[in-house]
Write a structure and sequence with these properties.
With 572 residues, the chain is of the alpha/beta class. Helix content is 35%, strand content 12%. It binds FE2/S2 (inorganic) cluster.
Length: 572
Amino acid sequence: MKTVAELRSQRWFARSDLRTFGHRSRTKQMGYAAEDFQGKPVIAILNTWSDANPCHQHLRTRAEEVKRGVWQAGGFPLEMPVLSLGETYMKPTTMLYRNLLAMEAEEILRANPVDGVVLLGGCDKTVPGLVMGATSMNLPALFVPAGPMLRGNWRGNVLGSGSDAWKYWTEMKAGNLDECAWREIEDGIARSFGTCMTMGTASTMAAAVEALGLSLPGASSIPAADSNHPRLATASGRRIVEMVFEDLKPRDLLTPEAFDNAITTVMAIGGSTNAVVHLVAMAGRAGVGLGLDRFDALSRRTPFLADIRPSGQFLMEDFFYAGGLRALLARIPELLHLEARTANGKTLAQNLEGAQAHGDHVVRPREQPLAAEGGVAVLRGNLAPDGAVIKHTAMEKRLLRHTGRAVVFQDYGDLERRLDDPALGATPDSVLVLKNAGPLGGPGMPEWGMLPIPKRLLEQGVRDMVRISDARMSGTSYGACVLHVAPESFVGGPLALVEDGDEIELDVPGRRLVLRVEEALVSKRRAAWRAPAPPYARGFGALFARHVTQADKGCDFDFLEGTAAVAEPEIH
Ligand code: FES
């Protein structure tokens, strides 16, 4: 156990000199008396609340509820706002800024008198961004997920974030829905604060972080508007104070076994493909080498059990009522490292004791899975030498093995201009290819990977086609979309060399993605290929372009990876 004298914050508060006089007097400036903070661990609450992030509207209140727990346990809470990456508004994509949040989180902790931290996030990239920063700083840290919003509703139909927007937009384009109905859907699809309530990236990453051991047990399944959620916040406030004295830090928990547990969880819940990029980056911050093949290996042995959209039928609220993540993990104990330590000081096995699924409809029994394998397959081949991923649980099964001719778009603008042009010549068997949508090409690897289907084909009843890009895809999306092709086309990866009419073979069971073009012709195209101009001459975009890694490496900045020590700030 750590003593008060050993607390990091004591460097700021305990000495008797001019600088520490300033720290104490300015703390009193905020209305705190000495007995409020002296000799107490300082708990930072990194809060991603923002008016520009609809998913996090309740996080101001939740921060107060965390503070309540910190006070109860004898700590001193300091709320610190950090960059809020709201999926809804930020362009070109929040992924461009995930590493910026990670840098901010790490540095704000380093520069201030902080002993432990509660991370308040939820909307997609805020989860890995906060965890990556906290892992690099390696102070005791506890993640409180924002929680999913309530179910959507339209004329008695349940609506899911993203998934049902794509679905009904497609029906409107096909002429099956009028403008009035579309407006009603707009009114009913987002009914409360909280993150997307499908098994999108937010729900997936919250579950992965709980499986890593960085949240209290059961945290990731609680709806944002449920009164269990503020109670979770307060319990987290209490627990982080204990963690400081126990000196229980992220890298004590983030072992290779913990990452196996997180990957297994993602596969069993039919989680977002974005988890692949984020978990690789998070592992890199913990000094754990994690490659795409580990995802594929664990996917092959993990049954898909959570019947939640977009791969299933229900929503996160239903998942919570059915027992949530603990109930699901309790159905696959032999696939987990049950001895893994978690943030509450107990093992995963202890946290799963007594967990029960209520009914078999949302959390399927082991013997009746939605699919025998997990939701993400890793593909390789001459079109993706460093790998690509596909969410094969959310696609039409007839396309699992498919060969077709490429219809190529040079970038997303090109796609928007030509998609519905009758001269496009796409057939239901075509393979739609989008270039220049990767980490550098997007830039930021936007969620453009669920390429829209041409209107003419929609009107013929086509609802799925093979699509290939170096982009990501929203966790709420679905379809036969090959994503994260590495290396990306912008840097001259093989995807850059694909032309209209080329034959492409997708073989999901065989994990292959092959460009069937003679090597001599590919070499000729490679010799003629010219690198596009970089999109940013200065600013953060230029820093991003210089240092971001490819999708298979997690898209972290090369200088942020690893566990090399960074000196504590001097106080003079
Ligand atoms: Fe915030 Fe989906 S938009 S979680």
